[in-house]
Amino acid sequence: MVAPVELTALELPWRLALEQGWEAFRAGNPPAGAVITDSEGATVALGRSRFYDLDGPAGHLAGTALAHAEVNALAQLAPGDHTGLTLWSSLEPCPLCAAAAMTSRCGRVKFLAADPMWAGAEQLPTLNTAIAVRWPDFEGPQPGWPADWQTILSVAFQTANGRENSEAVLARARSAPRAADLGKAIGRDRVRISEFSALPLSDAISEVLREL
Predict the structure, then answer these.
(1) Any idea what DSSP says for residue 99?
(2) Neighbouring C-beta atoms of residue 212, cutoff 10 Å
(3) Radius of gyration for the alpha carbons in the chain, expressed in angstroms and rounded
(4) Distance CA 102, CA 136 (A)
(5) Is the Cβ–Cβ distance between 36 and 21 less than 8 Å?
(6) In this structure, are residues 153 and 164 in contact, taking their beta carbons and an 8 Å threshold?
(7) For all residues of the chain together, what is the average pLDDT?
(8) Torsion over CA of 53, 57, 58 and 64, rounded to 10 degrees?
(9) Which residues contact 51 (CB under 8 A, 6 or more apart)?
(10) Is residue 4 pLDDT above 60, yes or no?
(11) Contact by Cβ (8 Å): 106, 83
(12) Beta pairing, strands 106-113 & 137-139
């Protein structure tokens, strides 16, 4: 069982990223959250996925498949050199978001859970020198329950939306079968997922991970 105190014990950017992802999930969006911090650790920007939102805060994309969590965080940065900034993401950035971090000149990217659907995308810097010199330093996935939680939530979202057999789910089932199975079980149960979505984040984590 994961107690709420373990959530508060996480580094603040990870906690904020998970909170953003939970907010996205509860709003009917893919459960991804992102945070940008400066060299002193201060929060610079927050973002979450907003695929199906009708609108969002100023500067955020919404109602489009481009409205990824990382993009919404990075879009708040003015043009310039941001190599001193770190992007924290609850999920490994897809090629779109990795390229957005590169284009924004963000210096470092940290992520909790691997996204096996995009395995191989880390080879993009080998394409040419221009990409290589701009490519951020990537760090992840992180060990422990936060990554498991993100995988469970991602699979639950896909399953609840009729995409249990999508590559996004199948890839996770191959790399993390127990977490994927639990995510499927949650996503298949309409009553459970409704009640689950109403919980505060710490309670939802405690309820789900005791079954893992």
Answers:
(1) H
(2) 14
(3) 16
(4) 6
(5) no
(6) no
(7) 94
(8) -20
(9) 29, 30, 63, 64, 65, 67
(10) no
(11) yes
(12) parallel
Residue 127 phi, psi (nearest 5): -70, -45
Question: How do 33-37 and 82-91 pair as beta strands?
Answer: antiparallel
Percent helix, strand and coil across the chain, each to the nearest 5: 50, 15, 35
Q: CB neighbours (10 Å) of residue 132? A: 12
pTM: 0.94
What integer pLDDT is reported at residue 209 of this predicted model?
Answer: 86
Name the token pair of 125.
Answer: 């810097």
- The sign of the torsion formed by the CA atoms of 107, 37, 33, 16 equals positive
Q: Using one digit for the tens of pLDDT, what is the confidence trace for 120-130?
A: 888 999 999 99
Note the pLDDT tens digit of each residue in 147-157. 999 999 999 99
Residue 141 has pLDDT above 90, yes or no: yes
Instruction: Look up tokens 């941001």; give the residue.
Output: 82
